[in-house]
């Protein structure tokens, strides 16, 4: 995967982490208490893997669990927090995902924050991905998001994604229905994580894959591919490497977008992005058709109705079709045709007076 990320253009599009998930471990620790990599899967050990990934100009991520065991039953970090944090630093790890199986949700405020401090104390910069909120939500505990975003760089709020359109829809609904609670917590250095991209696998059609990528970008979500790059089909590769939509996701302002319209299976999502002019934002807009009647739907709306009210207008382009519609104004009505379970994604770049 490392070689393909580099050779097939993913790295130049912005993907930079190669992360291994659960099951990389042996079922027991070493005699010295240290974590052991599965000797069959990783015969040369984790440091050798980390060195190889770094030699290709990429970064290396690893998985563990704030519990007695990982979700698949391998050793967790409880009782070995300091040892494991420093072992990750010795392995030159750049990204740590800490799951929450086999642990007590009411202890997570202390445990996750402690491990975050330990990672920092190693002196090795590591992105810290937490599952802290989702386990507390499941247990009926309201997460302390002020603490979560202080100690974690990204965190899960909802179910694990499955390779199905139903799963993607459930995540979209959760983030839309709970956006007033969720969205304000996101910003540079601390992000909501709606889970991995399943684009290119088996469960999503081409239209549905475009929709997942568009909404994840509107949400300013981490873009973590979960697909076999040896066999991915070209049309899905093009989605994952759409640099204009990646730029929306990675916009430096770091504002999580919101669902601004929902009616009879039609949704509109909006994300403020740069550049700004006199406190007027540019915007990315995603129109989604979640109807199942088998025919495209027309959506007509003025820019003003979308919140694009700057007098000097916006240069509008379609980010999937690469169509430039020129400068449009607040009272201009636009009409888009959206395929079933599909998306049309537009960008409106605010115009300065001398750009008219």
UniProtKB/TrEMBL annotation:
Domain named Alpha galactosidase A C-terminal: residues: 254-342
Highest rank taxon of the organism: Eukaryota
Any single biological process term in GO: glycoside catabolic process
Keywords assigned: Disulfide bond, Glycoprotein, Glycosidase, Hydrolase, Signal
Known EC number: 3.2.1.-
GO molecular function terms listed in the Swiss-Prot or TrEMBL record: alpha-galactosidase activity
Keyword Glycoprotein: yes
Pfam families per UniProt: Melibiase_2, Melibiase_2_C
Any single GO CC term annotated in Swiss-Prot or TrEMBL for this entry: cytoplasm
InterPro entries in alphabetical order: Aldolase_TIM, GH, Glyco_hydro_27, Glyco_hydro_b, Melibiase/NAGA_C
Family: Belongs to the glycosyl hydrolase 27 family.
Assembly and interaction partners: Homodimer.
Full protein name: Alpha-galactosidase
Organism this protein belongs to: Drosophila madeirensis (Fruit fly)
